[in-house]
Write a structure and sequence with these properties.
Helix content is 82%, strand content 0%. With 754 residues, it is mostly helical. The longest helix is centred in the last third of the chain and has 57 residues.
Length: 754
Amino acid sequence: MTELTQFEQIAIWSVLGVAILGLAYAVFLRAQILREDKGTDKMQEIWGWIKEGANAYLTKQLRSILPLIAVLTLALFFSVYIVKPTPEAIERFAGASEDQVKLYIGLWRAFAFVMGAGFSLAVGQIGMRMAVEANVRVAAEARKSFSGALRIAYRAGTITGMLTDGLGLFGGTIIFIFLGKAAPDALLGFGFGGTLLALFMRVGGGIYTKAADVGADLVGKVEQNLEEDDPRNAAVIADLVGDNVGDCAGMAADIFESYEVTIVSGLILGLALTRITGHNEWIVYPLIVRGIGVLSSIIGTYLVKTPEMEHGGNAMKAIFNGFLSSAAISVVLFGIAGFAYLQNIPGGWWRPVLTVAVGVALAILIDRVTEWFTGTHGAPVKDIVHSMNGGPATTILSGLVQGYESAVWSVIVICATIISSIFIFSPVDSAHQTAFVLYGVAMTGIGMLTLTGNNVAMDSFGPISDNANGIGEMAGLDEKARKIMTDLDAVGNTTKAITKGVAIGSAVIAAVSLFGSFITDVSLVDPTALAGGIRVSEPMVFIGVLLGGALPWMFSSLAINAVNRAARLIVNEVRRQFRAGVLEGKIPPDYKQAVSISTNAAQNELISLALLGVIPPILVGLFLKVEALGGFLAGIIVSGQLLAVFMSNAGGAWDNAKKVVEDEPKKPAENLGKNSERHKAAVVGDTVGDPLKDTAGPALNPMIKVVNLVSVIIAPIVVTFKQIDFVIVIVGVVLLAALIWAVMNSKRETVAQQ
């Protein structure tokens, strides 16, 4: 291995400058948004309720998770003391003793963990607060123009996207600048911190939003035939708050940790190729790619606009054109950078460039597949709408059909991506073919998330538009403004589904890359440990596969059960207020009580479901050993991906099918439009799909990566301590007790309402 050249050092510092530029762009957009009109006093009053509820939730969430963050920071610091330092760490701190090297790496890993967690939290919190600032401004602008409302909603979402891009690139680059080739030791902590916080925000936000949404729909729409955001429904504000804490804070943190994890795995696998070939290009080029992605997102997101027309405009076309613009700019710049920098690597400069381009194509393909299965104009959603004539049962069955099929097609797309990496890299070095191919897979993941700024902007656009529509309905805006907001809301529903598809796809690619990192790290500690590969024919490995495959199902069961329990409490509360005279106007609705119920329901599940992702891989590694742990990872990747896509797309299809019915002419006598029997069937289908698409499905993304990162961190420890001794038994008993507590705590029958 050689030291970085002057050109490489300049390139790394330039990447850091691009990260800062992305953050500056977010600040620039924030100033633009805050100058916009906030509308009437009534609109601002409703907005104030949403803002107060969102801030209260995030404050309470932070208090709930800080103790576990503190414990894990200490655990990550001491984890480096159990195994020998890597050759790169010894080289980086040349002249220091082995204990001193462990101290330095331990401090960096703990610091990186806190930084990753802090950045993930910042992306979620700041992004959510900007979404709340934007929703009332979108509603106010909708009174004037479609293009103006689209511009505000999308650029407000872009703030979150650029925070995700900027902070993710900034953190990874800073660690690389200070640690050089020893950076992967600390980057594991950075990725784990971001992933764990994403799991917290995904689970908590998902439970909150769907408890309120399900409760509001069942009582308001089905029982009382009220409009979706009727101000007399006490759960309406909690529902609007939930859109922000679930889809803004949760998704932003989710994609941020995917962004981190792909660069972590890319650098670990790139370092393996650097050891083999002596070329630094394998570890520098991924950072250059990420810098190009930030620049491309800045350009593409600013291009999103649509001309004002009499009938409004095509928001989906404008957003997708911006996405394609960023993609085209990225691919061209990838090629230029590769041609200029990668001339000396084995196999040719074009191979890494092509794998990154394949990753960009993967994002576009998943985008199209997801829109087909969830968009209002696709055959799957039309099939669900047609099935509503048979009532709720056929509606649910039709949605299940589409969800199952969509999972198959997403797997085919991902398989094609991995196969392409095999074809691109397999002729390079037959002796190290696996290392090159896995690096190619990691680069497709990096390429896929090159357009993170665009993806997060598309996702945040959804809840911003949804909230604007709710504010408009509650404030009684005119028909023209309501039509604009309804159109934006429908597009936002599709963009949310698309970004969930991208998030799930990136989770799988990142998990496959981490699987490669797992094998690399194990081989570095003990070259004989996995010399024969991970053999499924071995009973212990097969047990690992089964346990890994089962974990996403238990996780989903507990998450959906949490929504079910909390929704029952919301239903009871809304019914109580209706009986007390809210519908007749005798008393005002008590929004705070519904917000409190959802908040407490979400907080009570955070630690339990997080432990479900952290403890099982440790137990499998300690007692079933490293091959079984590899099987465990394979099981969770396959099972988790299929389940996540099924739940996300089925729920998205049910949701958009409901919107199709609601946009029909209102003729209940002809079974058309709102308040018809078909509409009630649509609401039931949407209610079933809500916790699937917004709680359990998306939360599986960070859960899969938490399991993979924990496995990569403990793999060297598992290989070092091959025998089960008294200390390992004691640790295992404590962890098993904690796991049992987590499951039992999550399955309890009541949720505190104080």
